[in-house]
Amino acid sequence: xxxxxxxxxxxxxxxxxxxxxxxxxxxxxxPNFGDDINPLLWSRALNRAVxxxxxxxxxxxxxxxxxxxxxxxxxxxGSGLLRGTLGRPRCPGKxxxxxxxxxxxxxxxxxxxxxDPAVLVDCLFAQTRRIEFANGFxxxxxxxxxxxxxxxxxxxxxxxxxPPLKVLAEICRCERIFSQSLHGxxxxxxYGVPNVWxxxxxxxxxxxxxxxxxxxxxxxxxxxxxxxxIDELLVSNQVDAFVSRFRYSKTDYLDTVRREVSELFPRAxxxxx
Length: 273
What we know:
Helix content: 25-40%
Distance between the termini: 50 Å
Number of helices: 10
Strand order of the largest sheet: 2-1-3-4-5-6
Order of helices and strands: HEHEEEEHEHEHEHEHEHHH
Number of strands: 10
């Protein structure tokens, strides 16, 4: 019951449109950075207010493994698949961008821009790189309790349930990041924080697909490490932590999205016009 009330309150918070606000659909469930970054990211990227869409009319389909939710009036801007199949031959609606090559191939979006929208965080949310921790760890949202109990006290646990801007700031306070969260890796790469991919747990839906989808858009992919090696790797200088840099132009990505969204969702004319 508590979870349902929290989910309803979170939906209501973002569901009220304002003048010229752009409708965006993203997953609203338990607090989770990869979903909750959407309203902040799109309002900053588009320089306009946004609201949570009920998907009954044209809307943007935002960041996350939510492409299965696309409808005929969806405008896909960086969404991805959770698994390697959509269950139908093509993605409905208009596709501006998808998360990676694997998603593009699965839905036939051969002309789409490639990239998870979260690759833009360094362009949209400036952060000061002030290192205070040697290691930070971003668990999957379902694994926070497990890793809180097993990580050493000097390792900064970055909880993906925290407010998104706090997650961004905390990642930038660490010399290197270990992340089981896809968006923990994407944010680390965006801000130039060396990072290590921690393998998904067996209970994480989709396995490595979304990670490999993202790495198809970077200059260098990573190989996941097993969680049983975390203790030894946190104190090791031999761990291969590095930045996987986005291979495409973020400026072109952002400019294209802004242009196409402004055409699809034009601002209302003022009375004086």
